[in-house]
Backbone:
């Protein structure tokens, strides 16, 4: 593909300047002090071709500086392509056109509330101040098409701007459009190029990146700065065990297998302040097929039973809360959402499973359903009958666990369905703390000169949970900010 | 039977065997050979043989990835237009061995690929009795 050809061409240019055979013969990075020929000199080096990285690249170019994106995989392979594609915002042109008022202060308050007031207020404030114009920028500069806004339950409200993905995920479409914007600007994206070390000067300011390429180790020089946009460490089992520990460190992945913690490994040796390291997001998944059964869990119909056929959680919880609780409620990290045909969308859910060849069970009776699903028949029948009896007697809150659905429905209309699910890891929130200029700070809260982070690589914006649409939003906001700050530094002729 | 006749019969049988093997091409490379392509038309590198890059494939197939995506738009999922982006063709379409459907590294779609042994990639429903 064109980007890869570009990369190989550049590697060849580079390697002609490196002593013949030296790159291939070195055994450690310390020995591989590859000289940095002019071909590898850039203003901004961006690590990782996800939303934050590609946004930063486009913005850097449009600010008049020379960026390069180093991507370790063959394509953008981070979590963005798995995202549904929502961007939570206030003050956008779309909201104005549709006559919707979402204030900055309200979004700020709700983002802080969702994070139990433990997110960094300055970063959160920066988000709400920038996201409106950034959504406009995604439309105007990147060509993103957003769906018409719809009013959603709190805290999404009329904030969620869905990227129109067509037949693919909204996140996948966003990446396609960002790649096209980079291609239009001839911004080099060097695939199969994995950053293995940040290069610093004697003041510990970051001056470049050493990367492993198909042709060996290559040094890249950054005149303005390096932006780490490699995502978190959701696919790094060792880090998950170390920072999360316990059952939550062994969840199946919902997203990328290649988000492996370079945000930590590259920055820790520079004494970056790593924050929120035990924080993450999880959600429901069928690990064997990667079907997301969220519609069933959020339907407001039916009950959730474990493999022993007993209810395990108040069905009023959101699908995220249900998924988060599951590994601690069941040793198998597995449960079934049982629903009946009172749920109007049950057929649609079944069709989705069929299309994805993902398991579900259906039968005209509860007994038959339990038998097909391999659940203990008598217990399941008793569980369903108890639920129906409690509903009829207005005693749902006396069940154990209670069911506090405001508008509960009887389970009495066949056919009945069982949709299996597990809890899966979405993304980690921990990383090197950034300030409002997207600069990584050290343990003394001083910026590490020349070092930036954005997206899920950066720490500070999320804690506990995140308000839907703020992951892609945060990647956009702080990706642009990092690029602008590097551009300013380049224009002033000094490293920020 | 003269030696010449015997040799002719042996050569004839050998030729038939070759022809049969071509007709029964069971992988992508054999099919290309059957269609008269030389190895070097796909394997452009002289030093060592590598899997061809997509630009080489697209010269004869589709012209562009976008066109490939349009041509297979009716398939579920569309293998040439996915959320992971435009993978190299040979990630799935192996030249000298069975194809591998990359999507099924995570998913379990029922897909029929050219030269796949059996009828599906991704296999049967995952749990006995599931998906009525």
Residues:
């Amino acid at each position: 593909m064109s980007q890869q050809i570009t990369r190989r061409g550049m590697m060849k240019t580079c390697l002609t300047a490196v002593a013949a055979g030296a790159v291939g013969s070195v055994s450690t990075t310390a020995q591989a002090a590859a000289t940095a020929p002019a071909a590898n000199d850039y203003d901004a080096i961006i690590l990782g071709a996800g939303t934050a990285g590609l946004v930063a690249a486009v913005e850097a170019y449009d600010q008049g500086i020379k960026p390069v994106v180093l991507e370790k995989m063959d394509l953008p392979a981070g979590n963005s392509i798995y995202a549904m594609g929502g961007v939570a915002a206030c003050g956008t042109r779309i909201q104005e056109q549709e006559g919707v008022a979402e204030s900055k202060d309200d979004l700020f308050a709700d983002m802080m509330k969702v994070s139990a007031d433990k997110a960094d207020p300055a970063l959160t404030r920066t988000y709400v101040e920038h996201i409106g114009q950034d959504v406009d920028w995604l439309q105007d500069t990147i060509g993103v098409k957003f769906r018409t806004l719809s009013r959603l339950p709190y805290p999404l409200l009329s904030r969620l701007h869905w990227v129109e993905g067509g037949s693919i995920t909204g996140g996948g479409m966003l990446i396609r459009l960002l790649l096209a914007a980079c291609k239009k600007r001839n911004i080099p994206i060097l695939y199969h190029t994995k950053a293995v070390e940040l290069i610093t000067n004697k003041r510990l300011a970051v001056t470049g990146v050493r990367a492993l390429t198909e042709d060996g180790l290559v040094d890249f020089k950054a005149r303005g700065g390096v932006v780490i946009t490699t995502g978190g460490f959701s696919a790094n089992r060792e880090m998950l065990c170390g920072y999360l520990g316990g059952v939550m460190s062994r969840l199946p992945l919902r997203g990328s297998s290649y988000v492996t913690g370079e945000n930590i490994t590259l920055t820790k040796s520079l004494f970056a302040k790593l924050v929120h390291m035990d924080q993450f997001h999880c959600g429901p998944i069928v690990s064997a097929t990667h079907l997301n059964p969220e519609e069933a869990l959020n339907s407001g119909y039916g009950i959730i039973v474990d493999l022993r056929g007993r209810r395990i959680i108040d069905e009023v919880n959101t699908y995220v809360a249900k998924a988060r609780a599951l590994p601690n409620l069941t040793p198998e990290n597995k449960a079934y959402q049982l629903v009946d045909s009172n749920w109007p969308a049950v057929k649609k859910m079944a069709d989705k499973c069929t299309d994805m060849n993902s398991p579900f069970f259906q039968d005209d009776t509860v007994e038959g359903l339990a038998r097909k699903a391999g659940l203990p028949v008598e217990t399941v029948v008793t569980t369903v009958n108890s639920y129906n009896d409690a509903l009829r007697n207005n005693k749902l809150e006396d069940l154990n666990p209670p069911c506090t659905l405001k508008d509960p429905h009887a389970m009495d209309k066949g056919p009945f369905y069982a949709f299996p699910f597990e809890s899966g890891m979405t993304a980690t929130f921990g990383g090197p703390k950034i300030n409002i200029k997207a600069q990584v700070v050290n343990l003394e809260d001083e910026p590490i000169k020349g070092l930036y982070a954005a997206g899920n690589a950066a720490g500070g914006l999320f804690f506990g949970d995140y308000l839907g649409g703020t992951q892609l939003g945060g990647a956009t906001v702080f990706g642009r900010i990092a690029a602008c700050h590097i551009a300013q530094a380049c224009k002033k002729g000094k490293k920020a | 039977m003269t030696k010449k006749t015997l040799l002719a019969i042996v050569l004839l049988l050998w030729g038939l065997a070759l022809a049969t093997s071509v007709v029964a091409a069971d992988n992508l490379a054999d099919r290309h050979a059957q269609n008269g392509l030389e190895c070097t038309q796909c394997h452009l590198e002289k030093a060592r043989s590598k899997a061809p890059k997509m630009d080489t494939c697209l010269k004869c197939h589709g012209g562009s990835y976008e066109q490939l995506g349009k041509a297979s738009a009716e398939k579920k999922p569309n293998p040439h237009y996915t959320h992971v982006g435009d993978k190299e063709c040979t990630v799935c379409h192996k030249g000298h061995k069975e194809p591998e459907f990359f999507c099924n590294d995570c998913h379990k779609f029922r897909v029929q690929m050219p030269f796949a042994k059996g009828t599906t990639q991704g296999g049967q429903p995952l749990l006995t009795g599931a998906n009525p």
